[in-house]
Fold this sequence. Notes:
Layout: H1 6-17, E1 23-32, E2 44-45, E3 47-60, E4 65-70, E5 76-81, H2 93-107, E6 115-121, H3 131-147, H4 153-168, H5 175-182, E7 187-192, E8 197-202, E9 207-213, H6 221-238, H7 249-254, H8 261-285, H9 289-305, H10 312-325, E10 330-334, E11 341-347, H11 351-366, E12 371-375
Parallel strand pairs: 4-6
Antiparallel strand pairs: 1-3, 2-7, 3-6, 4-5, 7-8, 9-11, 9-12, 10-11
Helix pairs in contact: 2-3, 2-4, 3-4, 3-5, 4-5, 6-8, 8-9, 10-11
Bound molecules: alpha-D-galactopyranose.
Amino acid sequence: xxxxxxxxxxxxxxxxxxxxxxxxxxxxxxxxxxxxxxxxxxxxxxxxxxxxxxxxxxxxxxxxxxxxxxxxxxxxxxxxxxxxxxxxxxxxxxxxxxxxxxxxxxxxxxxxxxxxxxxxxxxxxxxxxxxxxxxxxxxxxxxxxxxxxxxxxxxxxxxxxxxxxxxxxxxxxxxxxxxxxxxxxxxxxxxxxxxxxxxxxxxxxxxxxxxxxxxxxxxxxxxxxxxxxxxxxxxxxxxxxxxxxxxxxxxxxxxxxxxxxxxxxxxxxxxxxxxxxxxxxxxxxxxxxxxxxxxxxxxxxxxxxxxxxxxxxxxxxxxxxxxxxxxxxxxxxxxxxxxxxxxxxxxxxxxxxxxxxxxxxxxxxxxxxxxxxxxxxxxxxxx
Length: 383
Ligand code: GLA
């Protein structure tokens, strides 16, 4: 996909509306290094914002409507009345994010102001790199700039998540919105999803992040995702807890055979993944490559065997990267699962051998076409 910039999106606005925009804002997508399906269990995650974004160029309007044009959907447009009760549009899924964000911001007391908005993104859509969270965070930045209202980055993330949960109909956790809002350049963010506190963990200067899109279209994401959530809630309820954060690993292991096997395995993934995420943050902060490689490998196995969210092509991709890295590259599936991307972290000099192995072997072994995306840990929309 063609890379965009503030200047390019400003030109696109001008070509469409015939005047220059007031400003251009952007919000990044993300790659999660480790900590999968832990966010909605009050656990730990370690994502980085990446150098691929949703951009919005905008200018004020005299009335109280938003006139939104979407570059990635052939300049399709939508008009949103800021004072109306928002209704889902069954035909236009992209504009529902705008309506959902407006609805949640109005609920939180934001007055908002009318504007012309031109939205354009260079995130690979459908890859599981959070293009929707980046759209929500870019919208909140654009809308608060237009109205001159202040917003806290964590509040912005919560409003984006609420738009997904209450309006779009996706029961996601807080990770994607929070990292898109608060990401930091050259660092991953260790997020405690229980209290939403964050700690920047610098990525060593000579290491790089390689994302490989498996070419497997993510199927059944929503139904499988919601089912995993329910299974985790059931496991927590067995211990009389609201979330799995309140259950200790020893306690869970002692209940093997008493708790049904599926709930037991789902919970074992979450609780061991929380510990691996803390270990990964420690390893990253000390440039301990073998420590990071070990926990990323275990994370993938746990997602494959206990949480059952990988697919065969993704497992093959991780095997190719692991073999090519020779112990010097951590790799695992990243994101919600059932297709999407694999992430690898390795010293810069190891990256070419990873890329070469994927190009030589992956399509021949799986029939799927990979896309290699070199990513840099980047600043969030409000950082
Ligand atoms: C999706 C959700 C996140 C998180 C991940 C899995 O990206 O949006 O909240 O649950 O899946 O870690």
